[in-house]
Specification:
This protein is an alpha+beta fold. The protein contains 14 helices and ten strands.
């Protein structure tokens, strides 16, 4: 195993050299990262996907990208009775399509992330797009309720980074429960959207501006799905691990992947948290043991005079994903108190909010499933970023009785 790790580390060093070369050539430049828009579901992912699918959009490729999407969908779901034999150039594509106010029992209404309608609006492809956001109560159930009364033929797609299924809360209602493979179908960015974008790039060969935009978005998808390893390095790594002498070691390492990350968080990250609290003369709470469990990986900073609120950092997704920070209630006893202060915090900071959080927004490194983030954790870059976030929040909320 030591010999294997030594050889893998050599490939890692080669990979770093290749990436530095790409950086020197400007190939790592990505406009979505510059704008901090790489994880925005509505204004980045849904907007780009819908604009490419829309035959009337100004990319000039008419229904080319939509046809590739529909063909790939039929190929991916060969046993599905899905009829979308329509004039694709006359289809209508919408983002955040309003189907009415959400009813008191969450049985109807809402906004569909992306919808593709036939010219006569009697057929539809409905796409619920999830990057890191949680499922809403009866969300897919509401879309099915709407679809079965408005379209002769339709299909509901649940699009996520890795293709996981939605929660039962999203698919179950008073009248029925939806089944995967029958009432809805899961597709992912990791393979389906990646493959679609590859085809789109090929089809846009004669439209350089469109092609390069798709290329930047494609590169973003590779990064979000942890597939941005150089192809030459990947080929060498696969050959190394596929060797009969190394396969057992590969499985052993894979089995402790999250245990390793968890241990680093329980040592290095916790150490940084305590140092930050000491440097800023604040109290901290960092009792997490299982950092990879959703909503369990968190730590808080507060001053002794703060009665209800604290500055929080939390992984809102499983496996060290969706890392956010902001102002939240200190604990169960404080939750729900001082609602006027909570509203004042939200007005001051903006961002998202819920019953626990007065305001939260994404941390600079939101997904910790890559080596670069942990290198930044070891070298102190993450510690500096957290420290700056805490200082900024303290300054912005100065004078508010937390």
């Amino acid at each position: 195993m030591q010999s294997l790790l030594h050889k893998v580390n050599q490939l890692v060093q080669e990979e770093k050299i290749l990436k530095r070369e790409k950086e020197r050539r400007g190939e790592n430049f990505n406009i979505f990262e510059v704008m901090h828009a790489q994880r925005d579901e509505v204004y980045t992912h849904s907007a780009i996907i819908a604009s490419l699918l829309d035959p009337m959009w100004n990319h000039g490729c008419k229904s080319t990208f939509l046809k590739v999407f529909v063909d790939l969908l039929k190929e991916s779901l060969p046993n599905v009775d899905f009829s979308f034999d329509t004039d694709l150039e006359k289809c209508h594509v919408y983002v955040e399509y309003n189907i009415g106010n959400i009813s008191s029992g969450n049985e109807s209404g809402g906004r569909i992330d992306i919808i593709i309608q036939s010219e006569k609006r009697d057929k539809a492809i409905i796409i619920e797009n999830k990057i890191y956001a949680d499922d809403q109560k009866k969300q897919l159930y509401r879309y099915k309720n709407y679809a079965q009364t408005h379209y002769k033929s339709y299909i509901i797609l649940y699009l996520t980074l890795d293709g996981h299924v939605p929660s039962n809360d999203s698919t179950s209602g008073d009248m029925f429960s939806m089944e995967e493979g029958k009432d809805f179908f899961c597709i992912d960015y990791k393979s389906f959207i990646r493959d679609w974008l590859i085809c789109c790039k090929e089809k846009a060969a004669s439209s350089p501006v469109v092609r390069e935009t798709i290329t930047q978005y494609y590169n973003l998808i590779l990064k979000l799905t942890n597939q941005d390893m150089e192809s030459s390095t990947k080929e060498k790594l696969v050959d190394l691990l596929a060797n009969k002498d190394n396969i057992a070691a590969m499985f052993k390492i894979k089995s402790v992947h999250y245990d390793v990350l968890n241990k680093i968080c329980n040592t290095t990250l916790k150490g940084h948290v305590q140092k930050i609290a000491n440097e800023l003369e604040m109290e901290c709470i960092c009792s997490t043991t299982d950092w990879c469990k959703r909503w369990n990986g968190h730590f808080f900073f507060y001053k002794p005079e703060w009665k209800f609120f604290c500055i929080g950092f939390e992984f809102m997704g499983n496996d060290l994903t969706n890392f956010n920070y902001g102002i939240r209630y200190k604990g169960e006893l404080e939750k729900g108190k001082a609602p006027d202060v909570k509203q004042e915090i939200l007005r001051k900071l903006g961002g998202k909010h819920n019953e626990w959080w007065a305001s939260h927004k994404p941390f600079k490194d939101q997904d910790w499933n890559n080596d670069v983030v942990f290198e930044h954790l070891y070298d102190g870059t993450i510690k500096t970023e957290i420290t700056n976030n805490v200082k900024e929040l303290c300054k912005e909320l100065e004078g508010i009785g937390l």
